[in-house]
Amino acid sequence: QSVLTQPPSASGTPGQRVTISCSGSSSNIGSTFIYWYQQLPGTAPKLLIFRNNQRPSGVPDRFSGSKSGTSASLAISGLRSEDEADYYCAAWDDSLSGLWVFGGGTKLTVL
Amino acid sequence: QVQLQESGPGLVKPSQTLSLTCTVSGDSISSDNYYWTWIRQHPGKGLEWIGYIYYSGTTYYNPSLKSRLTISVDTSKNQFSLNLSSVTAADTAVYYCARGYGGHSTHSFDYWGQGTLVTVSS
User: Fold this and answer.
1) A23-39 pLDDT per residue, tens
2) In contact, B113 and A44? CB cutoff 8 Å
């Protein structure tokens, strides 16, 4: 059971806009930044969004992140077939002695 | 281009110690603001943060693994290592090394190794 809660699946058709939610608490999302990672099948995760809404160079502006209170969202606009992947949210959690926590992942299917 | 590469046995017997090394190329492991990290992924499951080490030797571990875990760094070889003792089948996972860039609790995992599957079985 993950500390951050994500829907297990999401789907959309090419060109659509989809959002993936991530819910946490005051000890993680509510008090620090949220990060998003994309994991294509059979590959290592890749940084997609950092510090809530910042994109690393090379990440298309179709990907955007937002945070409000203890929840966050990843939005993907103009959905493409190559976006089919698992998406994970992550945040630092201040409970116990502190650690990074991840969401359980959302499998995005492009129909 | 920064690259990370995990190496180590793919099969470990129960109760033994799992040992992996991550070799970093394209950057110095001794640079400031880098947190050299281990993350694992159980088969078909999500990601679990194991811990990190700073080049100075400062470590930070997942409390659930802390009693069995040692992460070390060899700056002369530009490598860092993971030792997880008393392993069980529950430690079977793909192990990734990654570079954390930023602050202690605000770094991004911006570069990852390809991952290595470690199976715990007799």
Assistant:
1) 999 999 999 999 999 99
2) yes
